[in-house]
């Protein structure tokens, strides 16, 4: 088969790397980079570290409003699909690159396979939630990472073509944690001791674009006693500077501001953190995999399993709640095997390769 895979943003490079290699052993894969992320530390470094093949096409779309960005992606992807005539299009996660790929393929009657189908935050003001819902409703194969994702899809009437596969991010976490241990020198570079710091990332629109929320998060960080290593996403960098918050953070004795990390350094800092402060979906899962307490700077999560097991707590952007969690949140609970066995990439390729008809019943592996 010929399969066109669409990637464009940081988390998609990580997810695609776990599928692409195995896919190429059996099928022809055409990798399309939309160009949504283009900085070296948000894009190139992931291709190098995860040995993701160079994209056959880079659409170079760049940053702009949601509609303009998605429209430009769709125009570029349409041209690729019309020329390549693939049997499937494979999309990942919930970004504008995901919906751009899925919608374009659906209009050309090319079946869509969606990796990470089904998580819901039940809040349509979140751009990623809209992307997920639409992508899931126009997909033929839906690779759900968790049972809760399967249940969410069922509630929306989607049962055909749903496979419970586990989460590809567990595959990459397991595989690259070992590599990170050998290669990453980030702890030494930053002068950090294992468990001697908190790791923070912030990039959700609600936390960056609403000044009051970003200010509240910054105030919370400033009033913590522990060292906070803050990997600053370019979107956040822009907003911190716009609201006049960057200098204060930069000068604060307990803050270590760093540019976005490569995957290996990110894994190393995650696994050795005392706690994680984040609004990233991926980092919430990696904190759970690492058994590091996660303080989520959001009102809801696509990963309620991590809350149920007690390893994650939702604090939104509320300064008092953030500080209280930094001081007091110390989970000890047992973890369940809710994200699969780290073989999700293999399962996805097997399902895609099977010429099995999409049955009328829910397909659970
Ligand atoms: C996007 C995804 C989000 C995902 C995140 C992963 C959408 C709607 N959002 O958010 O789901 O969690 O990626 O990191 O698809 N910028 C740069 N350099 C880059 C890319 C972006 O400077 O290489 C800056 C630009 O100012 C841009 C801003 O970051 O306007 C936001 O980028 P964008 O891709 O629109 O959204 P993210 O916040 O990165
Ligand atoms: N990540 C990274 N460097 C960083 C921050 C994050 O490599 O500085 C990795 C990390 O593994 C995370 C993934 O990128 O799980 C996706 O992160 P992001 O927060 O950008 O996206 P989300 O998961 O929220 O969609």
How does the SSE layout of this entry go?
Elements: E1 2-7, H1 10-26, E2 28-33, H2 44-49, E3 57-58, H3 66-84, E4 88-92, H4 96-107, E5 112-115, H5 127-137, E6 141-144, H6 147-155, E7 162-164, H7 168-183, H8 186-190, E8 198-202, H9 205-208, H10 211-222, E9 228-232, H11 234-242, H12 246-251, E10 255-258, H13 263-272, E11 275-278, H14 281-289, E12 294-296, H15 304-308, E13 312-314, H16 319-328, H17 344-353
Parallel strand pairs: 1-2, 1-4, 2-3, 4-5, 5-6, 6-7, 8-9, 8-11, 9-10, 11-12, 12-13
Structural features, described:
- This protein has helices spanning 10-26, 44-49, 66-84, 96-107, 127-137, 147-155, 168-183, 186-190, 205-208, 211-222, 234-242, 246-251, 263-272, 281-289, 304-308, 319-328, 344-353, and strands spanning 2-7, 28-33, 57-58, 88-92, 112-115, 141-144, 162-164, 198-202, 228-232, 255-258, 275-278, 294-296, 312-314.
- It is an alpha/beta fold and 365 residues long.
- It has a seven-stranded parallel sheet with strand order 3-2-1-4-5-6-7, sandwiched between helices. It has a six-stranded parallel sheet with strand order 10-9-8-11-12-13, sandwiched between helices.
- Helix 1 links the parallel strand 1 (2-7) and strand 2.
- The longest helix has 19 residues, at 66-84.
- The two termini are 22 Å apart.
- Mean pLDDT is 96; it is low at 357-365.
- The structure holds uridine-diphosphate-N-acetylglucosamine (UD1) and uridine-5'-diphosphate.
